[in-house]
């Protein structure tokens, strides 16, 4: 049986929505309260006008070329607004995290709009306790609140000096999937809302992640979300309704389960890149694999192409078993941080090991730090991301404090389907590459972080599994059973 949250808009648990600060949470709560109080026609009309003024006018995306990190050849910066929607267990949370990391590595500013239904329901509202009239009004105010929250992020995007990607965790039209057609039309007419503006002009692209209940039933699970309890049949129904709500949008992409999960995430990112006009080369192709190289004697910064530097901190956590690995990552620039929880699970039904990434709030991150595994050092890095020869690279420069084995360590990573001379020709010539260390357990971050001596510890991982890799910020499927 579905929960009250599922009946409303199938929201994810609070632990998995996009991170917001305490101040932002207060702002959201205030915004919700104001929206709940909105009643008269003047307020409704102002909402419509505000919505129209901030809705993008979709048009065919030009074939823009990336000329420096986060920039395109167009003179105007880009503000690209997408909606991630879909049925239960479709990969929406992981997809949001991987899109965020991918575009941040290109120098874009990324905003993550939280799921409004979850924000409101966290205030103690039980949808099942509401009368029919109250439920209708609550749904109406939910949409008003969603519009106001989204508009706040849209304005931030418009004022940003950088290219900006705005990821909405569901959009306005998702509400129509959980209300009858008659009531929806009544609500639209009563608020003078235009379906074309609400659906077609408000967002640049809609990406529907098909539920695992439809085509990947072996992987459907309700364990990861406290608010999820749908059976397979109900999940399929909700998935269909969510997709139907967006039919008609000029840029509506369905990401199905015709491939494994990691390839599904690749197709998600590739779809956005194609619409934006970013040339991603071959690094999202199914044949791409993760490659790792040892680098010595870094050249001056002036010899690099345009790049983005990030401070990165990794903490390994105590896990539920020897085959499960969990860690926290704090990643930021100029003291502005994003937080990710990563859990690696054993392979299922012949697929490569699955990585589940979840965006965290600062508070959640601090709480999870209490579960640090004392058998591991904290890993500190400077991560440099750059494009050269249409190939994306990530350079990890290990920093102190840490184990002496990490002193001066620099590792270069990329994903490619190229081999031989073709691969050699696309490598950065300005770097002193000592050797390839792909699959070498001596260069696994898991092993590098171990406090015990490798010759005596039982935790050292010696098993390399050449699992299929995916693009940076997308999956990080490990080449090692417990490695990075």
Automatic annotation (TrEMBL):
Molecular functions (GO terms): GTP binding; phosphatidic acid binding; phosphatidylinositol binding
Bias type Polar residues, positions: 41-56
Biological process annotations from GO: photoreceptor cell maintenance
InterPro entries: CYTH-like_dom_sf (IPR033469), NadR/Ttd14_AAA_dom (IPR038727), P-loop_NTPase (IPR027417), TRPL-trafficking_regulator (IPR053227)
Residue stretches in coiled coil: none
Gene3D superfamilies per UniProt: Hypothetical Protein Pfu-838710-001 (2.40.320.10), P-loop containing nucleotide triphosphate hydrolases (3.40.50.300)
Chain spans, region Disordered: 40-68
Domain NadR/Ttd14 AAA: 81-263
Alphabetized PANTHER family for the sequence: TRPL TRANSLOCATION DEFECT PROTEIN 14
Protein name listed in UniProt: TRPL translocation defect protein 14 isoform X7
Organism: Drosophila pseudoobscura pseudoobscura (Fruit fly)
């Amino acid at each position: 049986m579905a929960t009250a949250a599922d009946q409303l808009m199938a929201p994810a648990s609070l632990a998995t929505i996009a991170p917001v600060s305490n101040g932002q949470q207060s702002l959201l709560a205030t915004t919700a309260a104001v929206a709940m109080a909105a009643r008269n026609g003047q307020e409704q009309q102002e909402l419509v006008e505000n919505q129209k003024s901030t809705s993008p006018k979709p048009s065919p995306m030009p074939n823009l070329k990336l000329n420096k990190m986060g920039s395109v050849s167009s003179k105007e910066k880009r503000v690209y607004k997408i909606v991630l929607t879909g049925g239960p267990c479709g990969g929406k949370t992981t997809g949001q995290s991987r899109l965020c990391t991918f575009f941040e590595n290109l120098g874009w500013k990324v905003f993550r709009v939280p799921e409004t239904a979850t924000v409101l329901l966290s205030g103690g509202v039980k949808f099942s306790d509401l009368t029919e009239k109250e439920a209708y009004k609550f749904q109406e105010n939910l949409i008003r609140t969603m519009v106001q929250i989204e508009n706040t992020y849209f304005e931030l995007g418009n004022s940003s000096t950088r290219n900006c990607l705005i990821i909405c965790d569901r959009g306005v039209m998702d509400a129509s999937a959980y209300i009858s057609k008659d009531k929806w039309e009544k609500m639209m007419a009563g608020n003078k809302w235009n379906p074309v503006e609400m659906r077609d002009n408000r967002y640049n692209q809609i990406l529907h992640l098909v539920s695992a209940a439809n085509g990947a039933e072996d992987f459907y699970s309700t364990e990861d979300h406290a608010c999820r309890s749908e059976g397979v049949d109900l999940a399929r129904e909700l998935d269909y309704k969510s997709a139907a709500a967006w039919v008609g949008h000029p840029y509506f992409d369905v990401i199905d389960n015709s491939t494994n999960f990691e390839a599904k995430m690749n197709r998600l990112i590739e779809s956005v890149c194609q619409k934006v006009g970013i040339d991603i080369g071959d690094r999202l192709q199914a044949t791409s694999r993760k490659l790792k190289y040892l680098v010595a004697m870094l050249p001056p910064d002036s010899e690099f192409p345009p790049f983005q530097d990030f401070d990165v901190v990794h903490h390994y956590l105590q896990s539920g078993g020897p085959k499960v690995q969990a860690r926290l990552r704090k990643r930021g620039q100029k003291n502005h941080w994003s937080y990710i929880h990563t859990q690696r699970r054993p392979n299922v039904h012949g697929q490569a090991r699955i990585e589940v990434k979840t965006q965290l709030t600062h508070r959640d991150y601090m709480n999870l730090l209490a579960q640090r595994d004392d058998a591991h050092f904290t890993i500190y890095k400077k991560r440099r991301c750059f494009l050269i020869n249409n190939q994306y690279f990530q350079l990890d420069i290990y920093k102190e404090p840490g184990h002496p084995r990490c002193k001066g360590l620099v590792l270069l990573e990329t994903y490619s389907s190229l081999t031989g001379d073709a691969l050699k020709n696309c490598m950065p010539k300005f770097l002193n590459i000592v050797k390839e260390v792909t699959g070498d357990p001596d260069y696994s971050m898991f092993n590098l972080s171990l406090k015990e001596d490798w010759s005596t510890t039982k935790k050292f991982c010696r098993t390399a599994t050449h699992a299929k890799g995916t693009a940076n910020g997308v999956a990080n499927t490990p080449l090692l059973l417990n490695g990075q």
